Amino acid sequence: PAQIMAAATVDIPAIALPGGPMLNGSFRGERTGSGTIVWKARQMMAAGEIDYKGFVDLVASSAPSAGHCNTMGTASTMACITEALGLSLPMSATIPAPHAERFRSAEASGKVAAEMAKAKGPKPSEFLTKASFRNAQVVLQAIGGSTNGLIHLTAIANRTEHRIDLEDFDELGREVPVLIDLKPS
Length: 185
What we know:
This protein is mostly helical.
């Protein structure tokens, strides 16, 4: 979010490259996700279902590779919002960090960045429109994104002439269904 806010503030050509989520892990044959599994592990240890070593093993299983949290936390939310705003390449938000496609996306983003630098555009102001902010709000709702997404998207919008208020989010929340089933929603 800070990088996008900076790009919006100075209004020079910019493209974002999300780092990608880590892979899913497993513990005793069950899939684990980062972050939320810690609460479950604490409950299991308190109930005597696992000991301290089991707790550590379960929590460690939730982060088996490079990348940000593999749940719909702030990083995944903001990657999707950035793509919805048009500030990253299509389909770049969800590629897992260690996948080869991530490297191809990075290379393609670099080529676009070089072209943008040569052409001196397009600038963020050409992407950060009232319509693109509305689109990003719809995406945020549809993905069941992090509550931090509201804060960050509003902060980005406040760096432009387009303001978003919480009533806009409330209205969309009553109209747009959550379309994906990801933790934590």
